[in-house]
Amino acid sequence: MAERNEYRHFLSIGTRWRDNDIYGHVNNIEYYSYFDTAINTYLITFGELDIHSGTLIGVCAESHCKFVAELSFPEIVEAGLRVEHLGASSVRYGIGLFRKGDVAAAAEGWFVHVFVDRSNRRPSPLTPALRAALETLHVTVQP
């Protein structure tokens, strides 16, 4: 499992009452929502991604999550984000979900975006602003 210092950007996300399941912890599907929230908040804020009317959109091609420790309501989740691979029209993000202030991740995973033209859904090169924003998160991941 990766540690906090292996991520380049963090977003604090408050768990919600409805995130907990019958067992008293955040349901697994919500972890993917936290991934999506961390990634897209970063892309909109720093990569100038226009999700409403831009010609370029990101579609999820692949994702994975490894669960290590429970998260629950009420807690602040700190979502760590990094870029593990950056292609011409795709990116693989690494995401770690941490309890506020913890060094070790409660969960970690990856998420692959392929950027496509909104109208024809064909892969399209990253814009210069998007590429620059993603390059600041790039790390070399050891196999």
Itemize the secondary structure elements and their pairings.
Elements: E1 9-14, H1 28-46, E2 56-67, E3 76-86, E4 90-99, E5 107-117, H2 128-135
Antiparallel strand pairs: 1-3, 2-5, 3-4, 4-5
Separation of the first and last Cα atoms: 12 Å
Q: How many whole angstroms does the radius of gyration measure?
A: 15 Å
What's the overall geometry? globular
Q: Helices and strands: which structural class? A: alpha+beta
Low-confidence stretches: none
Number of strands: 5
- Number of separate helices: 2
What share of the residues lie within helices?
10-25%
The fraction of residues assigned to DSSP E strands is 25-35%
User: Whole-number average pLDDT?
Assistant: 95
Q: Which strand order does the major sheet show?
A: 1-3-4-5-2
Reported for the largest beta sheet, the result is: 5 strands, antiparallel
Element-by-element helix/strand order:
EHEEEEH
Quaternary status: single chain
What does this protein structure show overall?
The mean pLDDT is 95. Helices cover 19% and strands 35% of the residues. The protein has a five-stranded antiparallel beta sheet with strand order 1-3-4-5-2. It has helices at residues 28-46, 128-135, and strands at 9-14, 56-67, 76-86, 90-99, 107-117. The longest helix has 19 residues, at 28-46. By secondary structure, it is an alpha+beta fold. The protein is globular, with a radius of gyration of 15 Å. A hairpin with a 3-residue loop joins β3 and β4.
